[in-house]
Amino acid sequence: MQREKMIILAGKYVLGHLSEQDAADAERRMERDPAFRRIVSQWRDRLANLEGEVTEPIEPSSDLWRRIIRQLKKSPKGGARS
User: How far is CA 19 from CA 8, 30, 56, 59, in A?
Assistant: First the structure.
């Protein structure tokens, strides 16, 4: 597997964006492929630094959807339609 594809797969694994089967495949790959295991470890280290920076969700303003729809209707393709 190309290094770029390994980096993408490892990132998706760490972020939890793989199907159950693909995650199991990635775990088996980590057992036999030291390079892939190292990339997964690097992703974990990188993302661990963000843990303290994540904030609680913020409730959007009450008119957010109205503003979004208004902007979409202004888009060249017509955006959302009623």
Answer: 14, 16, 27, 30
